[in-house]
């Protein structure tokens, strides 16, 4: 349970083996390739140059983007398995060579062209349907017009005008026409925003009418169809039907493109892997005949990588050297956390805060028991814990859940146990008090608060002792006492004083507590002064350090949230039960059943969210701050995509055969 020991690896081989070496490195997914071209060792690098396949890398990136776009487009059309089927199904497993063979035989360019052509056809149909729909709206408005507007132009004495006006101008316009007395008008249609009119008037009055109605924003009809609106509408609807049928046929055809979809998914894997290898080539250094690769790797994986590369290119054709990590390189060393299966899921809590540096400790195993206690105290319900246990156990056992989702489910599965345990301890089952309980969330609030504070003080003391041990290992003896052991003993002294004077009335115990606290107050001042070259400044720093006691008071108070949130969750559940209990029997056992399930589900979600967030906060702010600096970076090895498939190592595969 610690940070994995790392090695610096240097590999030297002939150009002919470059691709094979990089494939094996990528296959192992354990070596982070670093650049040598930026180093200052000119004697080592004077015969080497840096390979820069920029154009090829850009081409691969462009191809990968085209494939990703095609997959995203097909997601909406190709029939996908249902959620349950997807959860139960397992990914296919390939070796790199099997993946390459499949993709090279699949003719991906043809598949991309096929998707592109189909997309253009569907887009064209969509635009045509949009145009026809707009045309339909126009024709539906004018379908009451039973003559062709251009046919009336040949009248000698009379003139016909057809057009629309805004709804707010309709009444004033008609009043104007009535005053004229020579104009016949007829309403063609009326909508919420406009009205259409037919005007018949003597040709001599056209200019007068035009001047009169211009102030009302009258828009004359522009009718470009060669048939009546009713007939044009019928033709439009037939054309829309044909377009929709054609569009449906295209979509139906694409539903069966499972093989094309699968080929593109494998191509995404292949071109991503190829692109990553080319990025690695960009930071290698080359001589006329050799290339050199450097990187970081876990010590325990060095031999496996050597065996894999030797199997691929021959033991005599490659040189692999490893070096120990120097102290000045600690900040640059990437981090791999190594914990047992029980603690591994809780690494996500540490990772969200920060990776440790190489010379620090992994805080995960030390935080683990406290997180269990905090989460359990806040959740604190046997029924809620059982639901969490059943949901996570069933998902992990009966579904093929992978990756980060599986780790999170394991995390919640483990947390279901302290939730059930504290539910029994507090005698709570969906807000109902059990007959057997150690403490009650209703009646023993003060006692629960004292337990919360006691656990918090213990965690703080533990963190401070950890800080003392870590600083001591790093050779910072003064800091290990001032920032670690001294404050831990001061907190212990305060606890002894409280126990001796307020709990058990043992004066000797309280005096020991006061003496221990005062002794370390003096110790902080003395050690700060002695360890500083400027004694006055050192004494001042010691006084400033003691001012930090206010921060510890705040830290201790923060742990009362364990009591507050646990009691709040229990009381909310009890209130929901009480509300349903007031309902009449008929409603209580019909609608009330549905209602209590919904309300309890809401409270479960809020309880677990609070437990997760506040348990994490207590680790980050109160605990980690006492001994953990962080600032490390994770190992980023040359790896495969593994988005749609899992990778099978070629070396192991050959050995098994």
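^ structure tokens above, recovered residues below v
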């Amino acid at each position: 349970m610690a940070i994995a020991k790392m090695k610096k690896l240097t590999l030297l081989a002939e150009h002919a083996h470059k691709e094979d070496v990089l494939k094996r490195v990528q296959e192992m997914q354990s070596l982070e390739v670093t650049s040598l071209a930026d180093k200052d060792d000119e004697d080592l690098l004077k015969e080497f140059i840096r390979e820069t396949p920029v154009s090829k890398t850009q081409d691969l990136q462009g191809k990968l983007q085209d494939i990703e776009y095609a997959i995203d487009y097909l997601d909406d059309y190709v029939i996908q398995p249902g959620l349950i089927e997807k959860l139960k199904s397992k990914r296919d497993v390939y070796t790199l060579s099997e993946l390459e063979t499949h993709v090279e035989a699949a003719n991906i360019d043809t598949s991309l062209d096929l998707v592109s052509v189909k997309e253009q056809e569907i887009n064209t149909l969509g635009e045509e349907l949009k145009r026809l729909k707009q045309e339909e709206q126009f024709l539906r408005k004018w379908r009451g017009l039973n003559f062709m507007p251009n046919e009336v132009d040949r009248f000698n004495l009379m003139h016909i005008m057809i057009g629309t006006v805004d709804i707010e101008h309709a009444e004033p316009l008609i009043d104007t026409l009535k005053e004229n007395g020579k104009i016949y008008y007829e309403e063609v249609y009326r909508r919420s925003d406009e009205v259409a009119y037919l005007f018949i008037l003597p040709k001599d009055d056209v200019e007068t009418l035009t001047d009169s109605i211009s102030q009302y924003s009258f828009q004359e009809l522009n009718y470009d169809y060669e048939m009546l609106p009713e007939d044009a509408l019928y033709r439009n609807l037939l054309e829309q039907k044909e377009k929709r049928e054609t569009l449906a046929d295209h979509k139906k055809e694409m539903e069966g493109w499972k093989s094309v979809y699968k080929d593109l998914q494998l191509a995404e894997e292949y071109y991503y892997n190829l692109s990553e290898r080319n990025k690695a080539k960009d930071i290698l250094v080359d001589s006329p005949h050799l290339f050199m690769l450097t990187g970081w790797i876990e010590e325990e994986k060095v031999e496996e990588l050597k065996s894999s590369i030797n199997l691929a290119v021959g033991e005599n054709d490659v040189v692999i050297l490893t070096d120990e990590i120097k102290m000045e390189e600690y900040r640059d060393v990437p981090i791999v956390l190594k914990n047992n299966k029980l603690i591994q899921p809780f690494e996500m809590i540490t990772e969200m805060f920060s990776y440790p540096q190489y010379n620090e400790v992994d805080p995960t195993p030390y935080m683990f028991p406290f997180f269990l206690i905090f989460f359990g105290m806040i959740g604190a319900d046997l029924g809620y814990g059982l639901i969490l246990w059943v949901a996570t156990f069933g998902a992990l056992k009966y579904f093929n859940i992978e990756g980060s989702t599986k780790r999170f489910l394991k995390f919640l599965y483990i947390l279901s146990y302290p939730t059930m345990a504290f539910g029994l301890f507090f005698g709570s089952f969906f807000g109902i008090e059990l007959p057997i309980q150690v403490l009650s969330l209703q009646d023993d609030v003060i006692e629960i608060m004292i337990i919360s504070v006691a656990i918090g003080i213990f965690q703080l003391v533990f963190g401070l002792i950890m800080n003392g041990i870590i600083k001591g290992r790093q050779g910072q003896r003064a800091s290990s006492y001032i920032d670690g052991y001294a404050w831990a003993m001061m907190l212990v002294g305060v606890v002894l004083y409280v126990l001796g004077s307020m709990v058990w009335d043992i004066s000797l115990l309280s005096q020991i507590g006061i003496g221990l606290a005062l002794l370390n107050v003096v110790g902080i001042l003395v050690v700060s002064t002695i360890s500083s070259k400027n004694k006055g400044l050192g004494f001042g720093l010691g006084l400033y350090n003691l001012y930090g006691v206010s921060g510890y008071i705040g830290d201790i108070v923060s742990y009362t949230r364990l009591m507050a949130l646990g009691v709040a969750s229990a009381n909310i559940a009890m209130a929901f039960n009480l509300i349903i209990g007031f309902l009449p029997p008929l409603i209580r056992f019909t609608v009330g059943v549905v209602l209590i399930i919904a309300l309890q589900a809401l409270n479960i979600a809020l309880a677990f969210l609070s437990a997760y967030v506040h348990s994490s906060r207590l680790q980050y702010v109160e605990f980690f701050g006492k001994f953990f600096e962080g600032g490390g970076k994770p190992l980023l090895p040359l790896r495969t995509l593994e988005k749609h498939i899992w990778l099978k190592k070629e070396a192991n595969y050959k050995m098994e055969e």
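The first helix runs from residue 18 to 28.
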